[in-house]
Design brief:
- The model has no long low-confidence stretch (mean pLDDT 89).
- The protein is mainly alpha-helical.
- Helix 1 crosses helix 3 and helix 2 packs across helix 3.
- The strands form 2 sheets. It has a two-stranded parallel ribbon. The protein has a two-stranded antiparallel ribbon with strand order 3-4.
- The radius of gyration is 13 Å and the shape is globular.
- It contains 6 helices and 4 strands.
- The protein binds a DNA duplex through helix 2, helix 3 and strand 2.
DNA sequence: TGAGTGACTGTAA
DNA sequence: CTTACAGCCACTC
């Protein structure tokens, strides 16, 4: 029995893991989905401690900026991963972010 | 124990 | 359009 969703921390990882290929989401979207819209920072903190099975590169800030790229080894790895999925990235920022945006509250609906 | 920091967001000017 | 400020919670020193 997966009681991993008993914690906000684990739930963030679970939602991030459900992000489909070629899609991205924001910290606020995840935070709001978990009922902690005012704790977007906690989502980022959770990402900092996320396991390797969590595609953290698909999680960016509300403007589609790769704010966490610095945590991907200090290289353009995060941008490369997104471009590899067909997402257009320019200067650490996702172009047409709204087009690639994936809202867990809408797509996932229930967890 | 208190102050500083951070992978953020929203509103105001 | 950009810039600035405040709120938020957990962690570190």
């Amino acid at each position: 029995m997966p009681e991993d969703n008993s914690n906000f921390f684990e739930k963030v990882h679970e939602v991030a893991r459900q992000i489909p290929y070629g899609r991205v989401t924001s910290y606020g979207a995840i935070a709001k989905f978990l009922g902690a819209a005012r704790s977007a920072r906690m989502v980022g903190w959770a990402m900092n401690n996320c396991p390797d099975d969590v595609p953290a590169h698909r999680v960016v800030n509300r403007v589609g900026l790769l704010s966490g790229k610095h945590h991907f080894g200090g290289t353009n790895l995060m941008q490369q991963l997104l471009e590899n999925e067909g997402i257009e990235v320019e200067d650490n920022q996702i172009t047409d972010f709204e087009k690639h945006f994936w809202d867990p509250a809408k797509e996932l609906d229930v967890l």
